[in-house]
């Protein structure tokens, strides 16, 4: 649970999410939608929208992870439906409670609870609709990539740069091809890879960068770096492993930067054989 909360927090304050919700908060504070212009003074409105926008990203991440445990296909209508209703159920009390707490300079009327729930539901529905459109666009890119017509390197607006040249699969002079995809200002030894939807989160000692590619391809490009799959969606470099820890019967590897990476039962034997974790 602590690892999940940490990952949700890190996602909320990583780029570009933090830039997006911060700009949305500033715009909302200026325009004062949903009656907040009449309910709050300027500073209360700024605080309100910054907390609302930031916490909504945090809660949305947690809800999506929770829903993914029950519905594996994140492109299904059922996944989106449960995501919308789950977010509405969890976030509505937060939004309403914050409205009441910050209404110390009240000049208008606080919207009733049912109206707040409706607002949250409608916003969640619109966000999921936009995500579905964007996701379908991504899938069309990946369909092209499967045929070899598209390959991703570096970064574009989403963190990637598109190039028509496929990466060299067996270059004797290249030590870690995945490292070449990172921007120069954050290029450092890679500690951890994790799959997220159609992206791979690449973690170094001080940075987290997302690349749009398959997880298996990212692992293949870690040539020259000894490492292990610890889970179907996690890979760690051997030199990054500091220790292991058991929490509620679940095993995690603790990395040098403090990240805790889950170890699934199917991958334990190879880690034991390599001497990474002890038997038992």
From TrEMBL:
Q: Does the keyword ATP-binding apply?
A: no
Q: InterPro entries, per this entry?
A: LytTR_DNA-bd_dom
- UniProt GO molecular function: DNA binding
Pfam families given for it? LytTR (PF04397)
Q: Where is the HTH LytTR-type domain?
A: 190-277
Q: Does the keyword Membrane feature in the UniProt annotation?
A: yes
Q: List the protein's name.
A: Response regulator of the LytR/AlgR family protein
* UniProt keywords, alphabetically: Membrane, Transmembrane, Transmembrane helix
TM stretches of this protein: 20-40, 46-65, 77-101, 113-130
